[in-house]
Amino acid sequence: MTIKELKNRLKEIAVEAKAAETSGDDAKLDKLIEEANTINDKIERAQKLAEITKNATAAEESEGEQQESTPENLAEKRGKKLKNGETVRMNKTIVTPKAAISTTTIAMPHHTAEDVRDTFNDVSSLIDAVKIVSLDGGESYQRGFVKSYGEGDYTTEGSDAATAEPTFDYVDINKTYITAYAEEPNAIRKLAPAAYDAVISNSTSRAVRKKLSKQILVGSGETGSIVGIFNAPAKVIDPTTDMEVTAITGTTLDDIIYSYGGEEDVEGFCGLILNKADLKAFAKLRTDDGKKVYDIQNNGNSGTIDGVPFIINSACKAVSATGTTKGEYCMAYGPFFNYELAVFSDMDVSISTEYKFKSGQIAHKAEMYVGGNTASYNGFVRVKKG
C-alpha cells in the first residue's frame, strides 16, 4: 500500500473505532487500535525512506552543479563548445574575485628580478690587445725605438770603415689621471634583490676602460691626455706613410697590407682597427656573379677579414660614412702591441658611505694613473678618408 492508501485506511479505522466505542465492542476497538498503530509505523518508515532518497538525489545534483561551476570545468566545457563551433558566453564571475581587495588599503607586492640585464658592449677590445707596461709609480716613461739600421759599404784596405750606425729615438709616455664616479641610493643596496650595487661598482671601472679604449686612437697628447695613434708625433709615425682611401673596394685590404712596413718584408702579426660601418662595407662587397669579395669571420668586437685580424673601435671615423670629411683618420693597421699603455698604478675602485651620508647616497669611484703612446717607429699605417 502507498502512503496515501495507508492514510485513507486510517480515516476508515477512525470511523470504525468510534462506532465500536459507542456500541461497547471493546474487542473490536482493541483490534482497530492495533491496526492503526501498525499503519502509522508503516507511514513513518515510508516517509523516512522517501526523505533519505530525496536527500541523496539532491546531494548528487548539488555535487554535479558544483563541479560544473568551477573555472576549470567551465573552461573545459566552453572549449568543447568552441571546438564544435558553438558560441559561448563568458560569465563575469570567472574573472572577478569573489572578495574584492582594495588597493588603497592593501599594499600590493612589487617583484624585482634577481639579476640586471646587461646592454650592448661599449668597450673596444683594443685596450686588451695593446701592450701593457706595469710601472710602480713615477711621472713619465720613456720608450726608445730604432728608426733605421745603417748599411755597410765597400772599403779599401787601410781606410776607415764605412759608417753604419743605427738611428734611435724615443717617445715620452706621461702620466695622466682618469676617473669615473657614480652614486646610488642606499635603499637600493639594502632592499633590491638584484645586484645593482655590483653593477654600479663595475660600471665605474668599465667607464675607465671605455675611455682608454678610444683614447688609444684619438688621445690628443696634450697635458693630461695620452697620445693616440692618430695623433702620434711625426718622429714616431711619419705622416708621409699615411694613405688615403675614398671608398671600400675589393682592393682596399691589399692596399693597406702592402702599404705597411719596410721594403724587405710583408709584416706579420698585424691587425686592422676600424669602424663597424666600414666592416659592414667590406662585408657587403660582391663580385659580378654575386659572391662575397671578402671572407669575414665575426667574433663580437673582433674577427678576421680574409684571415687578417680586425678590432672594431667607434673612435674611428668611417670611410663609408658620408659625414666623414676628407683627411679624417678612419683606420690603423699594424701589430697591436706597437702601442704601449704605461700603467703607473693599478685601477682602484672604492665605495664610500660617508660622503653623502645625509642624503643616503653611496658613492662609487674608479681611478688610475696611466699613459700611452705608439712605441715603434712607423708602428701603424694610418688610413685617411680620401
Number of domains: 2
CATH architecture of the largest domain: 2-Layer Sandwich
Per CATH, the superfamily of the largest domain is Major capsid protein gp5
Arithmetic mean of pLDDT: 83
Question: What's the N-to-C terminus distance?
Answer: 119 Å
Number of strands: 14
Helix content: 25-40%
Uncertain runs with pLDDT below 50, 5 residues or more? 81-106
* Neighbour order of strands in the largest sheet: 5-14-10-6-9-8-7
What is the level 1 CATH name of the largest domain? Answer: Alpha Beta
Radius of gyration: 48 Å
Shape: rod-shaped
Q: How much of the polypeptide forms β-strand, as a percent range?
A: 15-25%
Major sheet details: 7 strands, mixed
Helix count, per DSSP?
8
User: Structural class, from secondary structure content?
Assistant: alpha+beta
Q: Report the CATH topology name of the largest domain.
A: Major capsid protein gp5 fold
Order of helices and strands: HHHHEEEEHHEHEHEEEEEEEE
In summary, what is this structure?
With 386 residues, this protein is an alpha+beta fold. It has 2 domains: 81 residues; 260 residues, Major capsid protein gp5 (Major capsid protein gp5 fold), CATH 3.30.2400.10.
Fold and architecture overview:
A hairpin with a 2-residue loop joins strand 8 and strand 9 (308-312). This protein is of the alpha+beta class and 386 residues long. 33% of the residues lie in helices and 23% in strands. It starts with a helix and ends with a strand. It has helices spanning 3-23, 26-69, 71-83, 126-129, 186-191, 196-218, 252-257, 276-284; strands at residues 131-134, 140-148, 167-174, 176-185, 243-245, 271-274, 296-299, 302-305, 308-312, 329-334, 339-343, 348-356, 361-374, 381-385.
